[in-house]
Amino acid sequence: MPPKLRGPLPRSLSRLTETGGGGGGGLFYCPSCATWRRTLSTATTGRSTTSRREHPSDSHHRRPASGLATSSAINVSGTVPARFRELYEALDRVRETAAEQVSLSRLQLAQRGLESEEPVIRVAVLGLNDAAATRKLVRLLLADPLTPREEWEDLLDSYDAESSRGLLIRYGEHSEAIPNSLVPTITVPSNLLKKGNIEILVTSLGAGSIPPGGSVTPDTFLVPTVTIRASHSGRHNVVRYPVHRSIVCGRGVDGLLSYSGLISRSNLKKDTDSVHGAIDLGVKDEVKGADRVSFVDIDLADEALAKFRESVQNAMVYERGWTGSGVQPLIDWLSAVRKDEKLAPALETLIGSLLDAAEEGVQAKEAQKLREQEAQTVSDEVRESLDRSVSVWAERAHTELRDSLGEAFASKRWRGLAWWKLFWRVDDVGMVTSEILEKSYLCQAEKEVIWTGGRLKQAGLLKEPEDQPDVIVPPPTEENSETAVELAAPADEQPQWPTRITSSRDELRNTTVPSLQALAQGLVLFSFSTTTLTSALSALMYVSSTTGLYEAGTVAAVGLTYSLWRQQTKWESARKFWETEVREEGRTALKDTEELLRALIRDGGRRIEDVTETEARAAIERARKALEDVK
Fold first, then answer.
1. pLDDT per residue over 106-132, tens digit each?
2. Which in 50, 225, 320, 464 has the greatest CB count within 10 A?
3. Cα radius of gyration rounded to whole Å, the chain
């Protein structure tokens, strides 16, 4: 006789799945308080008004313009054992720093498993193309051959759930339906559920959860969805029910092809051992499957179980049929146990998979940021073209510096400043030298720099004026009036090209030209004064009648000769030094300008930002270390 049930199981289960029809309201599940509530209807409008409290996380899963509202089947709470606390907190930190890169529902399932020394292992049995075969397989996995057929087995075989509905099976001393549950739930006195601390979700792998093309994510198998009727208005809640492991059940060749297509498109990685296929295909060979798929014969296993229940004398028939059906390897796969003081294998695999997915997501996010930065920068082809133009400009500029200054220093006006002409052209030194700097000092090169700067700005290698920091202008005084006027110039009037050539010309004009002018005037003054003094001394000696005319004239001649020699030596040396200084200053200005242009081409227009997700990587590394410590 079947064990006595505490209540009519089919009737209790039907009350859980029914919804309010034309009555006063319907049932909906409140994720915040984890209970079922009834909607209230307003008689005046004829439209139902739902009063509920929503969990904060539900807002992330709601579809406003749709008839569906999603929620998660996990609400993390409870006390965490001491040896799991560090790992629990590390996963919580991963959730905060890498929420977009990790499946939050699976992460909550992992944290829920760490709240107990004996975590509940959730297993989903997903039907591919035959719901009846899926339910029958679950019954065979849980049935006890030493007891007669129980009422829950009949219920499971006849359960006419919709394609998107589900049934949750938990362990219980008695078979009964559990009210106020998220999905229709029954308890079954199964040794498999008890020893492995397992609960099984029976649902279908609906077409809506499988993308038509591309890769299949682990969530397709490990985060199944079940739909629950929320009210008589037709609104539904789509509940994501994360699990640790999944069995995908198919029937016949069509089921095998569907499962093979899904697995070939999947990218499970560490979740490979968490997904197993069970294909109802009458394979008579001794090889009943592989690591990721098992071939079972559900009818043969059902017949063997029925024979043994008829009489224990059919034990040999049961053994041959049960072994040949291929169901026992599935039971062994489900009942994998952990070692003492170690983390449950299913929970360890789940956490490792989550951390790998989070790390891959962080890497993908960093790569995306890097691509965005590269897309906003100037292409390498444009930079190479500009770099070649700078090389051509530098060659022409050095040639211009050599030729134009050579012509200027060989011109008549510069030769007119010979040492012996200084007596009547000393005032022309400043004018002639300034004219050389103005007309022969890299004039064409400066114009080409302005044109090159325009090309750089057009390519986006120069900063816009508004990007420059504001300059605080001090109040003008007598001492800094000119400086204040220069600083007060608007940003758009500041040159947007290298001005090293202009600044070097101004520096030569302001420093060397006055010095050269002063030197010329000093030499002429010294020559006149020396000649005058020696002539006066010579006349005095002649008048005093102490020396003759020739002796007195010798003193004047010595003074004149010395002053002219000194003027010639110093002035010619100063002219050569100034020519050399102008040439060297020009070369330095060209070199600095070229280096600046190449630096702008190389580094200009680049968004230099650190794309590394430091906090997320640190949180993932901490979680990995904590996982290694509890293994």
1. 999 999 988 888 889 999 999 887 888
2. 225
3. 47
